[in-house]
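Box 3.1 A note on notation
Throughout this textbook, protein chains are presented in two layers. The first layer is the amino acid sequence; the second is a token string describing backbone geometry. Keep the layers aligned when reading.
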Amino acid sequence: MVWLRNHPRFDRHVRPPVHPRLSRLRPALRARVAGLSVSGGRVGKRPVTLKDVAARAGVGAITVSRALREPAAVSAALRARIEQAVAELGYVANHAASSMAAGHSRIVPVVVPTLAHPVYVPFLDGVNAVLDEQGYQVLLGTTEYRQDREARLVEGLLGWAPAGLLLAGVDHTPALRVRLQALARTRPLVEFMDLDGEPIDLMVGFSHRAVGRAVADWFADRGFRHIAIVSTGAEHDLRAARRAQAFAEALAARGLRDDYILDGQGPSSIAGGGRLLAELLQRHPQVQAVFLANDDLAAGALFEAQRRGLRVPQDLALMGFNDAPIAAAVVPALSSVAVDRRGMGHTVATLLLERLAGATPQARVIDTGFSIVARASTDAPPRPTGDLT
């Protein structure tokens, strides 16, 4: 109904005067009927605030803030009550405002080379398991092994005012390295999955050069003399390139041929492993053992060897890298180089949290190590090669 004041014909519909005190209450009453909230005299579907959640849960706003930022800091019962209030009211935290006030957010970007194969999944699982308990969220980015892309990606991620930054590897453009050195003065930076470089701030991982030397020595110690290494995209995957270089250096130091090196193009895959083995054997039929850059390639090489009627390991020994589930699942099972990637992720995240809490780490560089897991694919002496060199 439309209320008209001072109109003689519709005077009976004119709203009677209301006491000022009741007038102030009317918006709140209307809002209660409509199921809306009121603040500062405003009525409508305004964003729900932290104070609204606190009122619904029957606690203070500071307690709600603490529970949302650090869930472990409050009791389970109180946390459940606050979470229920958040769900009922549809509260969405304004992280942008919080970041501006604090100078940083509770976001931790993790930059990895690729998600094309699952090698980084255990690492990310370890990182997330630690950070999630403390109320931090992971923001994921991939570089596809391109340093220029990494530089652009990091610059964009810094716009989120991250609490810290986790970067795979130690290879960065000179400009990005300078940028990261400045960043490390205000928040923690952890380079992971590699130790073959000078840390900008903190570093957790293992030496890929040490892996290359260890595998070459492992085969040579067992009598193999024609040992090859196969990878894909080593032009951009500098960790794989360092493994191959150290592998060749170790063979040369023993007086063995060090030129059985094949680096293919295109993405790493099982099918690619088969194609690369075929190309390798066409060039060097005398090869007795092959170290492949990952277990997908090794599985593809195994299938190609079987297609050709070659016995593994009697005619050709194969070893992969990463010790992914496929390595133990194929027949014969593939030897591989194992790295505790989930444990590494846990260590990286814990180190970052210690720095955020103001603690000084006992060591800036942590070596998580690696191990050679010998399985059936290398469990035979090398086949004779006659006079082939």
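The radius of gyration is 31 Å. The first strand starts at residue 37 and ends at 39.
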